[in-house]
Every structure is written in structure tokens, then in C-alpha cells.
Amino acid sequence: MRIALWDIVVAQKDRIVRLMPPGTELVDLPDAPASPVALDMLIASRFAARDTGRVAPRLLQVPGAGTDKVDFAAVPPAAFICNAYEHEQPISEYVFAAILDHATTYGAMVRRMPERGWGGAYFSRKPHLEVAGSTLGLIGLGHIGKAIAKRARAFDMKVAAVAATPRASAENVDWVATADRLGEMLAMADYVVVACPLNDATRGMLGRKQFAQMKKTALLVNVARAEIAVEEDLFNALKDGVIAGAVLDPWYRYPASASDPVEPAHFPFGSLPNVRMTPHSSAWTDGVWARRCAFFVENLARLGDGRPLLNIVREPAKSAARAAG
Fold first, then answer.
1. What's the CATH code, domain 88-277?
2. CATH topology of domain 2-86+286-324
3. Which site from 43, 123, 198, 229 is most exposed, i.e. has the minimal number of CB atoms within 10 Å?
4. Helices marked H in 204-324 — which ranges?
5. What are the φ and ψ backbone dihedral angles of 294, each rounded to 5 degrees?
């Protein structure tokens, strides 16, 4: 069995090597191979038209849930495409760290003691919020959304959600509907969490109209993809106080290296006092990569044994599969 790693997965090479079954070969891809490199598994978050003919994997294993960086038409038609999860636990913890800090002003309280002294901090106290009894609005009810709803229930919050698939009810959710009722959910939510995949239906689904439907006191937390919110509309909503604030983990632009001067967005979100920015790190834990690497190796074993693969996003085209067989 031959596998290769690209982009962010390269940092997990040692871990994957330790988990690989005997007889597995880890291939380092040259920058410009003279002929296509045949692989059993390629683990990479992207695949574009420029890669066509460069590598020919039987399985493109995407290391995360999102497949928006994959040009499906460019992937060899005989190849499987699978994705991976294992990130819902840390992302849901990140969401509640953001919500609790916003509600309790914990970070500000900690800073106030050394800044103002004991007496100044004590006599400048202001009442803060409680999350119990507030409403959490979820955009998306997949692995991440379900994990967040479960934790919201433990905090005695009400949960409202919009999901792609119609359903009469959902576990740990008080109100659920499809995206055509997004405005109703936004109007009732104290915290709105974006936890859906980026696709044609969700790209730009949060714009000026939707921000106006939210409470002025609402906090937006995005742990999905930046492009789900219209960039300029989000910036203006935060700058003009249409909504109270935002915690933003994914971004509109990404650096190619540590020295790349590219900004995360075309607008200066970092200049706004009601915005908290993090570098797409809500799921960046050692535990996530330990679980994902074990998952990659399991799918590789299934590929070799001819057993059904896990988390199939696209199966091989029937004509290509027959030709390969």
C-alpha cells in the first residue's frame, strides 16, 4: 500500500508512520513528477485541476469535514473521496468558551484586578449575564451542531436550529426547521453559532438582511467557513452595532507561509472592539489529530481488504470502477 501526505497533514507524518500496518509505503511527492504518481491513498485537504495527472490516488482522504477545497472533477473518476470528523468535541468546547466569556466577561474581570487594583476592581463591578435560560441558535445540525446542542442543554439553554434536512424534532433541540425559516431562528437567538458546511446553499446565507433580523444583543460565533457570512455585511453589522459582537475562527484569506503578509479579510475586523479573532484553531488539538490519524489508517486497511470505506463523500464512477477492475 502506498500513501502520500499533502499540506497540513504533513505535520502528522510521524504519528501516521507509527500507526501504519506493515507493508505500507509512505511516498514523498516530488514537486513536478515526470509521470503520474499512483497511490492507494492521498491524504490532503485540497485537490485542484492543476493536480490532474500529477497524482492518481485510489482514495483521496480529506483530513477534515469540509471538502470545499476539492475540485471533484479533477479527482480521478476511479477514486473514492472520503472526509473525516473527530473534531466536534473541541469545537463545541471552543464555542462555549466564547459564549461563557462573553456572558460572564470573565477575561475582562481577570484583567481588571491588576489594571485597577483591588478597590477599583471591586467598586467598578457590573452585573454580567447568565447563559441559563438564554437561546442558542444553530446553523447546521451535523456532528458539530449536535455536540454543541448537547452541551447547551447542560447549561439549561434553549436550543433552536436550522438544518439542511427536514425533521420534526432533534435530540437536545427545542425548535428545528429548514433554512427557509432562518429569519425566525435568528430573531429568537441570543447566540448564533455557524456550524454548517460551505456549499452553494450556504455561501453568503448571512448578509445584511439576516444580521438585521438578529437581536442587537446577539453574539455570532463562526466555527465553520467564513464565506457563509457576506464579508462586507458582517463587518458593517459589527461596526454599526447591528449585533453585539462576533467570535471568528475561519477566515476569508489564508497565508501561504508564516511570513506571508496576507490579511485574514479584506476589512479590518481586528480594529473592532466587539470582535474576537482566532487563527482557525477551534479544532486544533492533539486529540483531534490522534483520532483522525487512527481513522486514516483504518480507511487504508479497509481499502486494502476490500471492505466498505468510512465517511464516503463520493464513490468511484461506475464506468471508471469497471475499467480499473
1. 3.40.50.720
2. Rossmann fold (3.40.50)
3. 123
4. 208-213, 231-239, 286-305, 318-324
5. -60, -35
